[in-house]
Amino acid sequence: MDEKTVMLGLDALWVMLSAVLVIGMQAGFALLEAGSTRMKNSGHVAGKQILSFAIASLAFWAFGFAITFGTGNGFIGTEGWFLQEDEGTFDSLSWANVPLALKFLFQLGFAGVSLAIAWGGFAERAKLSVYFIFGTIFTIAIYPVIGHWVWGGGWLGRMGMQDFAGSTVVHLQGAIAAFVATVLLGPRIGKFNKDKTPNVIPGHNQVYTVIGGLILWIGWFGFNAGSTMAVGDGFFGYVALTTNLAAAAGAVAAILTAKILVGKADIPAMVNGVLAALVAITAACAFVEPWAAVIIGAVAGSFTFWTSIYFERKGIDDPIYAFSVHGIAGIIGTISTGFFASPRLVEITGIGKAGLVYGGGFDQLIVQTVGVVGAAIYVAIVSFVILFVMKKTIGLRVTAEQEISGLDISEHGAYGYPEQLDPAYQPKTAVQR
To answer: What are the residues whose beta carbons fall under 8 Å from the beta carbon of 432, sequence distance 6 or more?
Structure first.
């Protein structure tokens, strides 16, 4: 067996391992979101991760992957439906020397993560039917379009936009959709008082939240480092380094910010700080030096906590702070390369130009800003149209009675914690003698 064959095999194995790590992030989202919401909705919140990934798998196989990576124009791919490959169909991925099936599985994990982020804005009050309809449309008509613009040979990619693993493509898209849903659905019952002041609705299990955050942190090594889709030059190790440094800085910055702003070292805030930092470094991980990764992570972790408080005070009920964690941090991370992109790393990746700090001028900063604004506008408009039509036809939200009783019982017929919530399992009083 020659050296080339061995390297191709190692690349394929690495991409398969990375795909497993990224797909495994669904378990992290299930624990994070279930732990951050109430006990009466825990089964529903966790279970919808399986449902949404199943929907994403079928829709991305049939149409989404082709729209993202298929040969087409600057706006969408127009070839490769149902993963049918002819010569030149998926030229945008020709640099990755692994089988098409592995390319698909790896990219499917990204689409599934973006959809999981979107569901944060629907939590604890959306109908189950909404997940079927919006999940399918998101995976076909929203996520793949921006993916094509940046990664599939589209207009942003041609401009040299630097988004290595998807701060905009994956995270900002999901966050914008979540924000639109949050606004159209309205706040959960009891979240705000008559004077518009917010009430705390704590999640039922901080341990789940922490474990979910740790699973996502580990999965991110597949997310970012796996995006090299090769092992030969060892560059995946550098990407893993910047990813981890940013996450660590985000954790410390977030818990310190929480202590300063609200007077307590809030555990969920620390977890969200880790996630926000990971979101931010996702675009920049291959373009910035370690010291810049620490700055990006710290800024994202700190700023995300502040914005979560700000939006809540403005009447936005985002149960898991999806827009702050994935949207605000996604913007920070995408814009950051316009400042911090290192000349030596730009040369290695061959994407875009050096940042402002290195004398690269404003060119890359402008490209990054255009990418963020363009993606945000498209996702916001399409998400709003789809969800508004659904709201006026089938409705987005469960009834007040169903919301109060909990989505576990109203949508699925059984509580996730029957011994705590179901009267049939409550301890019986002792029979008097």
So the answer is: none
Q: What are the tens digits of pLDDT across the range 224-278?
A: 999 999 999 999 999 999 999 999 999 999 999 999 999 999 999 999 999 999 9
Phi first, then psi: what are they for 397, rounded to 5°?
-110, 145
Per DSSP, 125 falls in state T
Instruction: Report the candidate in 165, 115, 177, 160 with the shortest Cα–Cα distance to residue 371.
Output: 160
**What is the end-to-end Cα distance of the chain in Å, rounded?**
83
The Cα–Cα gap between 391 and 387 comes to: 6
SS3 250: helix
DSSP 178-224: HHHHHHHH-PPTTSB-TTSPBPP---S-HHHHHHHHHHHHHHHHHHH
- What burial class does residue 274 get, using C-beta atoms within 10 Å of its C-beta: 0-12 exposed, 13-18 middle, 19+ buried? buried
Query: To which residue do tokens 């955050």 refer?
Result: 213
364 burial (CB, 10 Å; 0-12 / 13-18 / 19+) is: buried
SS3 category, 163: coil
pTM for this entry: 0.96
Q: Of 123, 94, 97, give the one whose Cα is nearest residue 10.
A: 97
Characterise 83 by phi-psi region: left (phi > 0), alpha (psi -120 to 50), beta (else): left
